Amino acid sequence: MTDKLFEGVEFPEKMDLRLAAVFASVSEGRMRSLLREETIPSTKDEAGKYVVTKAEITKWLNTKGAKTTRGAAGPRGEGKAFIVKVPFAKLQAVKEALATQGIELQPRYDYSKQKAYQAKRKAEKAAAKAAKPAPVAAVAGEAVPVKK
To answer: Is 76 inside a domain boundary?
Structure first.
């Protein structure tokens, strides 16, 4: 994509963030992340702006992790591709189905902790309900328990 789009265009040896993103055919945000993570080595100028060499970007483009065109099939990074909401009751079946495709499901939180928390809250509510005195109504000087 980059080769055809910018055919005949000569990029400078040192580029800022925006020009580096254009050269690599990635968004500025993606380029910023790559520079921040030091996936692509860079320096900062006096103003604190990124300066990247053309050689470093070309080197990154030739690695397995570089994906330069949208929708192109190729090696995937370790980022999150999808967030899927799965009911707890179906979690094990979904994990097994994805495992057959070589995909590992990583839950956003630990379901065992959720169950423990729910059991604790249920016990707390039961204890609070047991400790709460039953409402009474006064009838001609006598206390009579009120039924709900």
So the answer is: no
pLDDT score of 99 more than 50:
yes
Indicate if 55 and 94 belong to the same structural domain: no
* 35 within a domain of the structure (yes/no): yes
Q: Tell me how many domains the chain contains.
A: 2
Tell me the three-class secondary structure of the chain, residue by residue.
CHHHHCCCCCCCCEECHHHHHHHHCCCHHHHHHHHHCCCCCCEECCCCCEEEEHHHHHHHHCCCCCCCCCCCCCCCCCCCCCCCCCCHHHHHHHHHHHHCCCCCCCCCCCHHHHHHHHHHHHHHHHHHHHHCCCCEEEECCEEEECCC
Cα–Cα distance for residue pair 9/6, rounded to 1 Å:
5
Whole domain around residue 137: which residue ranges? 88-145
94, 54: one domain = no
pLDDT at 1 over 70: no
The more confidently predicted of residues 128 and 112 is: 128
CATH code for the domain in which residue 19 is found = 1.10.1660.10
Retrieve residue 21's tokens. Answer: 């993103």
CA 3 distance to own-chain centroid: 32
